[in-house]
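User: Thanks for the earlier help. One more: Sugar ABC transporter permease. Can you show the sequence and predicted structure together?

Assistant: Of course, both are below.
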Amino acid sequence: MYSRALPYLLILPSLFLAAVVIFWPVYDLVQISTHDVSRFGQLRDFIGLANFAALADDPDFMAALWRTGLWTLSVVAGALVLSIPVAMILNSDFYGRSVARVIILLPWAVSLTMTAVVWRWALNGESGMLNSALMGLGIIDQNIQWLASASTAFPMQVLIGVLVTVPFTVTIFLGGLSSIPDDLYEAAALEGASGWQQFRTITLPLLKPFINIAIVLNMIYVFNSFPIIWVMTQGGPANSTDILVTYLYKLAFRVGKLGEASAVSLVMFAILLVFTMIYVRLAMREREA
């Protein structure tokens, strides 16, 4: 009896600390979102779900919600598609592999805010490096205002989001590829399997647990990502590149609607919680099968 309870007793302090760190802020958010709140954070009258109703009636919130889904899915999918072949190349044996790995993983060590600042300069409509390069190659004959319109700004932000997500995803996939025995590929080659057949029947199935990890972690990371959108456009022009986290920031610190901002936080928390629970459940069911 004691031996069975011992592991739970040992992890109980950590569980308690994690519960405090996670659930205390959630409790505060529930309190704020269900009350009328002053700009200084003072709780006034209880108003129930009025803040959530105000969000539902706000077209900017609905647009930011839809755009957040598009942003998250595009960045995560793009990072996965790029990271698998990059990880396979870096996992192969070639001269200078260590240097190549450092070059690929180096952007991960750079501040995301600094990366966004550099790209904002590069995409400047008058003196940006991208316009200069494209004009030098003869692709365009006049400057493009990349960040002045959502039709160009948001796709560029998605592209940058993919590029900064690739290093972390490649790291996960390198760990998975290094765990696959070389004997499997040698046996498959002796049986006459092509490179594509080896990838489809050996690499991809054995890499699937690591792909699941990358999807869950990247979804959470990208969904809550603030610096790229904020540094480059601050959600503009005219809120046309806002995602939920930048919409929340404006709501709380520019407009002073702390109650509605807390409601947005709870909506984001609920979306991530539901996604994680569904995805983990599906992964477990697949493993059991």
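User: Great, one quick takeaway?

Assistant: Residues 43-113+153-288 form a domain with the MetI-like fold fold (CATH 1.10.3720.10).
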